[in-house]
């Protein structure tokens, strides 16, 4: 009997298993057909639930046959309830389509739902519907990425590489091989000024990434866009008021691998004045040592506190959804650093034919305090009229301590010699950069929505300050491999510098569009323009200090004084050095008008027209100091046509083609005939510098097969007239002086190929892009030849063709994604490759300084819990990839150097190491 029951039970289990089945399906957007990830699928009678994966798919296993009721929920869609039949076997795959609960944006340049690109499906939809050729990074993609600043986020976009600062953090974007000077930065479609003390381009590391709703990179222009974007446009779309209560917050801490085994160098900034003694007390004031804060010389070394990263965003709508308000704040306090080693020859420049005799070993420690504040208020009077006011403030404080040991060996550079002359140079520098933008906008519709009027009033300000930038130099000696600091280095071992510049913009924009009534097609005619008044001021002053007596000049470090604050110093130039060409005022008035048409039918969309931009740029030196051209101006008008065409092959694929003409204006610093002594070279402006013009052509095939997937492949070509590049040039008057100066160099060409691929399969996804760029420019270089008569070497000028400065031939990104919606896990491993590129253009033939190609690997992971909580971790520079600079070629004598600087026929000139950085945090998100 017992055996009979066992057999019966086993048979029952087998029969049950035989009749158990599974069902599969997908959840799609009912309007676009795109997959919806993260939707909850609930079987009512069985009490089972699951979530859709990255490709919108779901699956239930071990079900019995029968009828059930399925509930599908997603926060952006209306709930779907439907009765389904589960068959014993071969149940057809279910397809469920959800209806969006949100409205569509008005048609301006791009079209999309109100969530505006805050998730990947919306971002792909924006790219598909965009008039321009563009790429979009969604807020969700930014949130789960390893990046915490906009500069690092933008490197994930196809065709974009970044230029890093001295600590390895991303700072500037290079689009399609065009240096940062050729790109424009916008906030909500409005240009913001730059706090940079020399140039127009905006450092993107100012912006915390969690302020963004999405990041847009435009690679072609239409007539209603500002035209100074030869490379492209980076547009930061900030968060706006949601349709219902939204609360988001995160708090994280972290540490840099660099400080696991070494201390962090810092100094005191308390008591440092933003203004020099000259500004505080008048031009006739004689400064004394007591006027300078000694905290800038009070160096301390200890373990840094953990990093801190935080963000808070809250928004809602009131008054029957007429009034929308959003407030956001972001704060980052980070400790970063690097070790940088330079190798130089005793001759001017870095010449591969010269013998290396000098080394500079630099340790950087930097505390970055980044603050971002923004708010937006919008009011809808009725469906046809609304206004909004947006404010943004970002501030970045950098407190950097750089300790350098400069070594000059007697003869060839070789540490094994055991004896050398040393100079210890320590620099303490506080830099404060900030940008404010306030934008008042109106959007009005008349004549049954056929006439649209939009306007904007903009007030922006950018500021850069370096108060009491301090440097102290000491002599040293190396004997038997022991390095010692000895005495103060020269007659003026301590210098204090004040630098400050401001950019203030007042601008007005207006656009008028009229929709022409047509059957089976659409035609919109529009016109508009802008007027901007930019005022810039620049201030520079420095003081030199020396020992108070001849006896004190002989004091020894560690013997006669233990700390730099113990020094008794006197000011050798008590009135300062404000009378220099770097103290100037400048202005620029820009006027633009455009006319544009936008035609669209079932297959075609064509947008074309012309834009006029008039520029009146001027400068005035406040202390000419003998300059021949103390005042100057550049006035010019350019007519800039453009045409964009898009052809829909079917619902999922299309062809995109574009042509536009763009310009690049010189920066104020670049046309002011100023000269400044940098640590490595002399630098000087060029009042004869011309603006550059470029004709740009694009062709791209676009496939959006499903969900967040895409395949884009395109070609681009740029023909640039009067490109602006920096080179080393001899001074016309003082031939022995060589300046790093901007110039125009005939014509240049730049063409390339881009491939962008995104694919999701259930829990896994891959994002990959690759860009090949080829550019050519011809510039004059100095070379040497042997005089046939005297047999002596003589200098000659020859032409050399090379790539554009900053352009890498190969750029690639690969991200491996994982998302388990049911268990709340999401993560990615992101690799970025940038090929070799020119870092510095030399005056000598075959002497350009190249940056070696490198791979950076980053990672992030997140675990979601109930009620909106999540924990996350981010890791950057996992491979500790160094930044290396080299020259092509070498002197045979350099192969004897003990540190092995020769590899593949190239000579290493600089190597920077940064270390890994880690962050662990907690995130909370609530949406009513």
TrEMBL record:
Keywords (A to Z) from UniProt: Cell outer membrane, Membrane, Receptor, Transmembrane, Transmembrane beta strand, Transport
Gene Ontology CC: cell outer membrane
Membrane topology, from the record: Multi-pass membrane protein
InterPro entries for the chain: Beta-barrel_TonB_sf, CarboxyPept-like_regulatory, OMP_b-brl_3, Plug_dom, Plug_dom_sf, TonB-dep_rcpt-like
Localization annotation: Cell outer membrane
Location of the Outer membrane protein beta-barrel domain: 566-883
Coiled-coil residues: none
Main location: membrane
PROSITE patterns in the cross-refs: TONB_DEPENDENT_REC_3
Domain of life: Bacteria
Residues of the TonB-dependent receptor plug domain: 129-233
A matching Pfam family: OMP_b-brl_3
Record has Cell membrane as a keyword: no
PANTHER family: PLUG DOMAIN-CONTAINING PROTEIN, TONB-DEPENDENT RECEPTOR-LIKE BETA-BARREL DOMAIN-CONTAINING PROTEIN
Similarity-based family: Belongs to the TonB-dependent receptor family.
Protein name: TonB-dependent receptor
